[in-house]
Amino acid sequence: MTTVQRVQPPPPAAAIRPKVVARAGLYAVLGANVCVVTIFFFQAGLGSNALILLGRLAGLYGALLMAFQLLLVARLPWLDRRIGMDRLTSWHRWVGFGVLWTLVTHMLFITFGYAQLSSLPPVDQFVELATTIEYVLRAVVALALIITVGIVSARFARRRLSYETWHFIHLYMYVAVLLAFSHQVAVGTTFTTSATATAYWWTLWGAALGSVFLGRVVLPLRRNLRHQLRVSAVVPESDNVVSIYVTGRDLDQLPARAGQFFLWRFLTRERWWQANPFSLSAAPDGRQLRLTAKTAGDGTAALRHIPVGTRVFAEGPYGAFTTLHRTRPDTLLIAGGVGITPIRALLEELHGHAVLIYRVATDRDAVLYDELRGLAAAKGTELHLVTGPATPDKLAPEALARLVPDVCERDVFVCGPPGMTSAVLRSLRELGVPRQQIHFERFSLAG
């Protein structure tokens, strides 16, 4: 038997990866501001006892983390395309716990520090501070709101709440930010003793809140006013899957890439208030956008009944699951269930040899499979449909190595249900695929 060996094109020139640049930038911004805040703290003087001083420093760090937390969820395009909404939101969550603990520390140390000076019991001292010093009560309310948001964001609570309920409660974090900032302006040592520090804090909070306003209000409104999106076709793909085509003006100027997603609002009387995240299921071509959704409840079931011509308000595009992050000339694409939608769009855009593994329970669950076969044939892609129950794992390391012997030489894009994605990532690590070659999107709403 004669073996035909495919000649590999040379890998792309070495360069600093966009994700590394963005992460380093965020770390540098945070680190620089920590240094500045610490300098201002010491410049304000050390005229109190140790507990009060530590409490003030904890409060300053808590305020800084709160501003940084806002930046992480501002949905600024430059950060989102390089890091991805899912990771930014995960970092936002962990920074939120940092905010919680630094502000709790601030409250406790300040209370015990002043109790030490006044000889009052800590509880009585806390009540006196809250009722006699202007704006301290606002800080107490802010901390109560932050604790409430922290509790509902913990995993045990988050799993029991609908996204809409969790999101509504989470909006109170903005109220907490404003209350905490007003407290800092009124009684914060750096605000009252240093004009330079005052200007710094106003600039910091202005930049943080301005970023949120820009990314979450200005850019979505501007893009939707420009592009005037409307539903142009609703195409059932199967009994429980539907594709929706969207057209508009100047779509060639919309900065969307294969692999990204939008938060879609279909402006009917029943659905205008619902924003659902759906990936593009076809590479943007400048003429139309397509999303493909599987029924997962009443909301998605109603998508097939949306009238043609319905106005659409789309926030995005979001996500770093794009070819921007490729490091190798060849690619392995692994999709599970309806996670095939961004993978199918990526396949359309990719150059170089690709292998696509599509994991589903049964053949009937293979969404857009006819399209995949045609696209794979046109591009010379190896297409593997892997069916069967979740156990045993058919994408275990040995199975992946048999299907794709050169897996370690490829970029790997993974999208599917969280359980499948986690299992595939473990298999890739066991096979020794370098971390920088693994790109994944967890098929769930960020947050």
UniProtKB/TrEMBL annotation:
The keyword Cell cycle does not apply. It is a multi-pass membrane protein. It is found in: Membrane. SUPFAM superfamilies: Ferredoxin reductase-like, C-terminal NADP-linked domain, Riboflavin synthase domain-like. Its main location: membrane. The chain crosses the membrane at residues 20-44, 50-73, 94-115, 135-157, 169-187, 199-219. The keyword Iron applies. Keywords: 2Fe-2S, FAD, Flavoprotein, Iron, Iron-sulfur, Membrane, Metal-binding, Oxidoreductase, Transmembrane, Transmembrane helix. PANTHER family: 1,2-PHENYLACETYL-COA EPOXIDASE, SUBUNIT E (PTHR47354:SF8), NADH OXIDOREDUCTASE HCR (PTHR47354). This is Ferredoxin reductase family protein. It comes from Streptomyces himalayensis subsp. aureolus.
